[in-house]
């Protein structure tokens, strides 16, 4: 990225940026138009060719091998009819291998319990889909269900009594590190809200932002970045256990980003054919192969879709699983302009989320304009008549290494402070107090507005290194 120094309309900065005698709305526009901050944006979709096909993936499903209500064949045929391209069977504490297996008690009692080899090949190759891509599985997938549930993939291992979430993750990570397989074990955390208390409206929100509860998940993601790729943010057509898991996701991202992304998964956790097709993930890949699925889970080059999301869409909303949901057709990042733009179909609005709050709406977010609300990440969610789609997070870093050194300039601090206050009326002037040119860690920015002809002042403190408001 080309480095851009901060620009201000004034030719000198001596302690006060005077915008008095300029209407508030014009002052804001002038400030936005003539000043720039400099951001580094980490884009999980940087390697995506948007002409690629998008592959519909479900990573959490059950049969009567555990507590489901249907056979493997019934679940697979339904998923195939709903257009899935990647389908993982993750029965509780069962290492699921292939769709034509014959080695389980169910398979031996009923020869039609699993697919025939011929039918499996037909699904793999897309027979009956008019030239469309087929549907493949993920071998050695398992919902490790001792204590908190964990989905593992490409993992020929099953947990035993006494295991904890921490011990399971540590074991799979060790398998990842020592495996000589091309496709090493990966995992994601399932419906965490069931365990930290996130299923309720008010208490769930409080639990999802509780520092001690958040720290548990942050610690796991930071300790095992190579194998623990993410967490479910929507689970089941009920969105019950996961009611507050988008809030937890934001809480985790606030701590791990921009150095480590945590992908958000939407999964049916289907225990019957009627529960399939309401939560899924769109993988952005050049072709449908196991390796590409594995690579995409590691890179985060996918987005998740839910036809039920109670907090975002309403408690009574339920989309139609046979109809299209909000779809992303292109994401463009322009670091020179500090913007991210999304194009798509089947949506009505795009919301941009940072630190768990909506900081902007529309196809494009300009980070310069939302500087006060963005710390280290931003993500988008597309809402439509038939559901919601969530991007993975974009890392955001304010580049404070200007030609003056490793700190913000006074003007940069003033711009961030101005963006944090309501300046819709009257006029404004800014006075900065600071100690030393570059030794002080915090700028105190005094903003004075005229409200109904009377001056009103507020002081905003801006960290000189990070640009974060305290």
Task: Describe the 3D structure.
The chain has 470 residues and is an alpha+beta fold. It folds into two domains: 16-38 and 399-463, no CATH class; 54-398, Metal-dependent hydrolases (TIM Barrel, Alpha-Beta Barrel). The protein is 23% helix and 26% strand. The chain is built from twelve helices and 23 strands. The protein has helices spanning 24-34, 72-81, 105-109, 117-125, 165-178, 193-196, 202-208, 211-223, 245-256, 290-299, 310-313, 410-419; strands spanning 16-18, 39-42, 54-58, 86-87, 136-137, 142-144, 150-153, 186-189, 228-235, 263-267, 279-284, 302-306, 327-334, 339-345, 349-354, 357-361, 364-366, 377-384, 387-390, 394-398, 428-433, 442-451, 454-463. The strands form four sheets. Strands 2, 3, 4, 5, 11, 12, 15, 16, 18, 19 and 20 form an eleven-stranded mixed sheet that branches. A five-stranded mixed sheet has the order 6-7-8-9-10, with helices on both faces. Strand 15 and strand 16 form a beta hairpin. Helix 8 packs across helix 9. The protein is elongated and about 85 Å long. The chain starts with 15 loop residues before the first strand and ends in a 7-residue tail after the last strand.
